[in-house]
Design brief:
mainly alpha
Length: about 100
């Protein structure tokens, strides 16, 4: 993942959203942000649901997974989801 992707707010809020859902291994479910992450929270959860339904989606480019969720400008949200998934850091037994 590029430095510019890391510095963006959307990837950060996507990571926080996954943490809030308790989907990141080692991080308990809870509230981790005072700022609004509502939209990215929805996108992150949907991405995990899609990956659980069809794990072969992980082979797509992140923007292709994004396009299965919504038709909106992409800001590297799926880079976070897919990186965590590939590293086996997502709890896949619950969503």
């Amino acid at each position: 993942m590029s430095k510019s992707s890391i510095d963006k707010g959307c990837p950060r809020s996507t990571f926080i959203a996954l943490c809030e859902y308790g989907l990141v291994i080692g991080i308990p479910e809870g509230s981790y942000s005072k700022r609004g992450i509502k939209e990215n929270k929805v996108y992150a959860k949907k991405a995990i649901e899609l990956l659980k339904e069809d794990s072969k989606l992980i082979e797509l480019k992140p923007i292709k997974l994004w396009n299965k969720i919504i038709d909106k400008k992409y800001n590297s949200q799926m880079d976070v989801v897919m990186s965590l998934w590939k590293e086996k850091l997502i709890k896949i037994e619950e969503v």
